[in-house]
Every structure is written in C-alpha cells, then in structure tokens.
Amino acid sequence: IENPTLILFAADHGITEEPVSLYPKEVTWQMVNNFLLGGACANVFARFNGINVKIVDAGVDHEWNPLPPNLIQKKMGPGTKNFKLFPAMDRESAESCIQTGIDLVTSKDFQNTNFFLFGEMGIGNTSSASLIHHCLSGIPLEDLVGRGTGLNLEATNQKLNILKAAKSRTGQILDPIQVLSEYG
Predict the structure, then answer these.
(1) CA distance 124 to 132
(2) What is the mean pLDDT of residues 132-158?
(3) DSSP letter string over 55-115?
(4) What are phi and psi of 37, to 5 degrees?
(5) For the whole model, what pTM was predicted?
(6) Which of 11, 62, 68, 94 could join 181 via S-S bond, C-beta 3.0 to 4.6 A?
(7) What does the pLDDT average to over 170-176?
C-alpha cells in the first residue's frame, strides 16, 4: 500500500427541506470545517493508521472565502433538490459526478497513491443512502431507515413515511444511474 488516502466528498441534500434530520443543512459546511481542521473522528482514525485525508466540496451550499488550501473544489452546485418532490439531479449531473470522482483519483495529484478509501458528509445523507440501497438491493425501506443522528421513534417513522412518498413519486427504478439521479 502506497500513500493511502481517504477522500471525503461533502454535499448538501435537498431532502433536508423535509424533517428527516435533527440538524439543519448548515451543519454540513460546519463539519467540513471540522474535517479540514483534523478534528473529526475520521481524521483521528486516518492519523492513527497513517492515511492521508482529502476533503472534496462536491456541492456544499456554502461559499468558502478564502478557499481553504486543503479543500478540493469540485462543486456541482449548491446541493441537490428535494427528492420527495423532484429528482435530486438530472442524469447528466449524476454522470458528471461519477466522472468527477474518476478524474480526481486518476489525476496527477494521486499518481503515487494505490489505495483509496471513500467517505461522504452531508446532512440528510442517510435518507439518500437508504433509498439508493433499497432501489438497488430490494431490501425493504423499513429495514434500512434508521434514526440517523439521534431521531426518536416518532421522527424516525416520519422520516420513513417521507422516503416512502419519495419512492412512490418515482415507482420502481432499475437503472442505477437513474436511481442516483433521483435520490443521490
């Protein structure tokens, strides 16, 4: 293993317009600052194991002024749309996000890296992940939707109902890129 690197992609999820999290979307950029300062749990695990950490702004609804030197700017916009009401993004944007990730890890900046780990940060991310997982695996949403960061049972049930409503908007989707477009 040479120059192992953890790349954390950060972006805001439009589903946070719905009550799916205890925290507002502004916590996303605050957590990015914590990553940049080396104070998050991921940073501690990485340091302990000799792993570099790189943070990518893939769509945080925040303007960095000045741009932190250790933040990779690949912003695809200020975040996604509320997928309960609309597709999170169009297909071209989803494909562009995938290509951006490919371009990043194959860039000269990482030519001496042969081992990558990936993570993400964004308030509302478990809502997105639950629906993507459900669509790709067929596992019932009830088995995938959890309390996130501390929701009580009533709020968790409300979150589940919001995600079911989003799923009923789209129906069954088999194309993985369309799944990403709808809920990513």
Answers:
(1) 13
(2) 93
(3) EEEEE-S---SSPPTTEEE---SS----TTTS-SS-HHHHHHHHHHHHHHHTSGGGTT---
(4) -85, -5
(5) 0.91
(6) 94
(7) 90
